[in-house]
Amino acid sequence: MTNSGGTPGQVTLTETVSAGTSYAGTAEGWSAGECTTAGTSCTQTVQVAAASSAVVGFTVLVDTPLAQAAISNAITSNLPGACGADCTVSTSAASANVVVATQPPVTVAVGSPVTVVSGCTNQGPAAARNADCVVSGVPADATNVSTVCTVDGTPVTPPVANLASGAAISCTTTFTPASPGVVSITTAGRSNSYDPDSSNNTASTGVNVSLTPPALALSKTSAGSVVGGESLSYTLTVTNSGQTDAAAGVLVYDQLPAGMVATAATGGVCTPLGSAGALLSCAVGSPVPANGGTAAIVLTATAPDVEGNLTNYASVDPAGGTPAVPGPGCAGANCASATTAVSAQPGLVLRKTNNASSVTAGSTVTYTVSISNPGSVAVSGLRWSDTPGSGLSDVAVTGQTGDDKGSDPGACTGLTCSAISVAAGGQVSYTVRAKVNGAAGGTAANSAVLEGGRCTVDAPCTATDSDAIVSGEVIPVPLGSDAVLVLLALLLLAGGWTQLPARARRR
């Protein structure tokens, strides 16, 4: 303030805190407590000596960030005409323009790492003071989270004190999502400098986090060995390493070895059953759970009666579609095989005898039925039945025995015995009794029929004992025994003695 007169004077000044600022002065003489925030006013009376000037200070703090292009301040006086253009001051703001850019949307699977690259560039003419670049939106349950920012390749931790015009803060954010859904990764740029365009201060990248589809693999197991003609089972296990359940009905192809016949399946439906060497199409009966879940089909088959190793091949499509044709050329986790050693059935010997060549009408006769296994492997699942022929009645199985090798004669009901197993080199035996009801001159016949095993050529699966029926009290004597020979010799001697003359006999 200048007093150009010849006498001292005073003037009362009124100051208003400008928009975008707050009063920050101390001991400057303004009315206490009146000037604080933008829009508030305070006064001060100033004494000015004649032909002299006085200086009054008014200190303000510019807001951060600065939201306007200039700061204007006007002072008024109680003296009319004392203030002109010089009583208004306008200060232009240094202009920066922080522009944010980020990458296009991405799609990832749950559990797979994702990377989002974004940046905050100062495109204004002046440096951006206290420039910041903030990345947000990473899910709370994500793991392996990190954000690394650089300026010209040098790692920095925003905010940056002065980001030069044309310089950029580049940020790389990585994380591993744990849940499906759409995630928005937002980058926000700011500084304490005036930014004329706030519309470009944020940008977002959409991250579509999805569950991976079913990823199927197949494994197959079976018994290591089996005897030809017997049953064995294969377990086909489908494993799903994807993050989505596979619906029920997943197809599995199974190529049976030549001569092998599938008889049943559990855990799914397989067709065609009953055809030797068939290519089976099996539909898994239940969903295959995600994240390592499994579903299995147990296939029961009858091995052919051949000696050697038989390999069963199977396949599944990784995505649950139509499988590849199983076989030696099918490779990878979606193909599986199992090799089984097959031993030929040993030749079983079936015999039935009463150790007699004739039976007496009206008598009771006892038969012995034996099943022998001369082979080197045990045979199980055998069954035999007694079939009475002519001349017999009241036939019954009255006894059964095994041996010290572990052979089991099973259980007998009526004239049928089942669940029989015969150890290698072993034998089981049965006693059958019957009444001879045929007339003398007829024949008493009785047969045993063996099922479930192979019989030797000289002892077929049917063994029959047929005897002549005689009258009287003739006691059947086993042929070829010592008792028969002694009896015949005595009879011959007696007959010869009666034919000698009496004189010769007396001698």
Q: Could you characterize what this model shows?
A:
With 507 residues, this protein is mostly beta strands. It folds into five domains: 2-92, no CATH class; 98-210, Sandwich (Immunoglobulin-like), CATH 2.60.40.10; 217-343, ntegrin, alpha v. Chain A, domain 4 (Immunoglobulin-like, Sandwich); 347-470, ntegrin, alpha v. Chain A, domain 4 (Immunoglobulin-like, Sandwich); 482-507. The chain is 5% helix and 51% strand. It contains two helices and 39 strands. The strands form nine sheets. The chain has a six-stranded mixed sheet with strand order 20-28-27-22-25-24, with no helix packed on it. Strand 13 and strand 14 form a beta hairpin. The longest helix has 18 residues, at 482-499.
How large, in whole angstroms, is the Cα Rg?
55 Å
CATH superfamily of the largest domain: ntegrin, alpha v. Chain A, domain 4
**Tally of discrete structural domains:** 5
The number of distinct β-strands equals: 39
Q: What percentage of amino acids are in beta strands?
A: over 45%
CATH topology of the largest domain: Immunoglobulin-like
Number of helices: 2
Give the overall pLDDT as a whole number.
90
Distance between the termini: 193 Å
| Portion of residues within helices | under 10%
The strand order across the widest sheet is 20-28-27-22-25-24
Structural class: mainly beta
- The name of the CATH architecture of the largest domain is Sandwich
The profile of the biggest β sheet is: 6 strands, mixed
What CATH first level of the largest domain would be assigned? Mainly Beta
Flag low-confidence runs.
Answer: 494-507
The coarse overall form would be rod-shaped
